[in-house]
Here is the input.
Amino acid sequence: MTNPVKLEIMIPSNTADGLGAQEKLVSLMEQFEYSMRDVFAMRLSLEEGITNAIRHGNKFADDKSVIIRCDISTEKMRVVVVDEGAGFDPEDVPDPTLEEFIERPCGRGLMLMRAYLSICEYSDGGRCLTMERERNSPLPILED
Amino acid sequence: MSKPDRRIDIEEISGVTVARLLEKKILDEANIEALGQELFALVDKDGRKKIVLDFTLVEYLSSAALGKLITMHKKVTTAKGKLALCSIQKDILDVFKITQLNKVLTLCTNLDEALTKF
Here is the structure.
C-alpha cells in the first residue's frame, strides 16, 4: 500500500513548464499504479487545465505564476490549479457541440475535463480549478 | 526517410496524400503549432486536395490539436478537396466522440477504408 502524497509546484506562465509539471503528476499516478485509462484521462485534463491557466488566466505574463497542488492516494487524485488572471465565468463558455460552434477551432478543453473528471469545479471567480478523478471512474456512454 | 524535426511523414497512394503523424503526444503548444503549419502547407503550399491523416502512432492529443484538425478540415473543404482520418486509437476516438467531432470529420478504422473515401 502506498501512502498518500501531497505535492505543490509553482511554475512561470509558459506551457513548457506546464508540460514539465504535468509529467511529474503523471509519474505519481504511475507510482500509484493507476490504469492506462485513468492516466489518459488525467493527463488530458491536466494539459487542458494548466494550459488554460497559463494562456487564458495569466496570458503568458512573465510576472505571474501558476500554482499546482496535488493530493494523490490509492483511491483518487485531486489537483488544484490556481492562476493570477482576471478570472472568468465558466457558464460563459459556449457548448462546442452546438451546430453554430462545432466548427470553431477552440473551446473544447472545459468540455473534455468535465467528461473525464469526477469533479471539475472553478472557484475564486474562475482563477482556481479543482480537478479530481477517482480510480477507475467510468467515461460517459458514447454513441458510435 | 523523414527529417527528425518533421511532425508528419508523407506518402502518395493512388493519388491520395497519406500523412502519418509521427508524434506520440500531440500536447505541447509549440509542437501543435508546428504540426499545424506542416498540415496546412499540404493544402496552402502544395495544393493537395485528397488527404488522409494516419493516427497510428498517436497516443495523446489535446483540444488545441483538435483545433488544428478542424482548421485543416475547413481548408481542405474550401479547396473542394476531402480529408479523412484513420487508425485512431480507442482513447483518442473517445475524445472525438465526446466533442462530437466524429460528426464533422471523416473517421476511418484503417488506411484501406480511408482510401475508399476518395
